[in-house]
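G.,

No rush on this.
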Amino acid sequence: MTMDKTQLKSKLSKDQRSRYLLTGSIIAIIVAFSPYIFYLYEIFPSGPVWENTFFTYESKYYEDVATAAWTYFGKITPLLLLLIWFFTCKHWWYHAILVPTIMYGYQLVTAIYQDLYLNIDDMDTNQLIYLAPFFILIISLVYLIRIKIFDKIYGIDLSEIEETNISVFSNISDKELEEMEDLKESNATEEDYYAKL
């Protein structure tokens, strides 16, 4: 016996709703437990070497495993929250969330690299130089999306704007200059003068 279309559609929508409910619940649990994720550094031992049954970790830059873990989890926690925000945000500007996400990702990679290889070069101090191309690309993308949205909402024809040649530095026509001079010469109050401008 086959299901008719309405029963199949109802079953699909129930499956979809339960999947969204499960995904939302997992995200809510991660966000609610984010302070605990940050404070996981407290379980790591003090001292330069951490030995366990799986591996041995030596902190060369921080010279303390607990300090290295504190640094890592201080970057991982906001990075995780920003990634959740980016993937669940329904606003048109959600690409802007990539700017701090990339920044925290870069800082995390830098911290791990410095600790593993004892690289004293301050990679983190010049991060804006390395991240500027990403920032410019993301900001340009967000602005382009904004223009397209305003075009759809208000029906603005972008080609008309380009043809009008309106600029802050555009020249004032002779007629407008004469009108401003007439206003100055008349004995109008300051409020009238600015109102007529």
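When you get to it, here's the other one too:
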Amino acid sequence: MGRHLSLAGQVSGGPACYIAGMKILQHLAELPALVGHEVAVSDWITITQEQVNLFAQATGDHQWIHVDVEKAKAGPFGAPIAHGFLTLSLIPKFFQTSIEILNSRMGVNYGLNKVRFTAPVPVGSRLRGRMKLLACEAIENNGLQMTWLVTVEREGSDRPVCIAESLSRRYP
């Protein structure tokens, strides 16, 4: 994992945009001040054909564009591509490699508001997630509900491959 940084190590004058490494927050109470800011950028993840095949097995989506390597080479993208939902399912991993909230016992995925698959992900691509906190609301049991704009980038491309509003809840 990357370097560990805390909010105390950021540039003065409010929350900074991305600084390389894991973003560590001491308490949930630090999150509301980050609304409107890009909070973190994840590590890169390489998409393999094995991941695509296993995802196809798990979901029953065996469309040739994903799993038939030879046919996909002659297809519209020149290679097999990852399922859009495989890309989307990496969001928890992006959070895991970029943000840690200490003094928080539990976090849960609460759902999605919007999802768009804006570009294909050829097998062998490296992806990462950029997390911008859009909203942060108090919920029962002293928890917080957060709305994150997650932009999934493909290395070497100026166009994101997925844009999603992800809802999560955290509890102290």
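Confidence is low (pLDDT under 50) at residues 1-19. The two ends are 24 Å apart (CA to CA).

Enjoy the weekend,
O.
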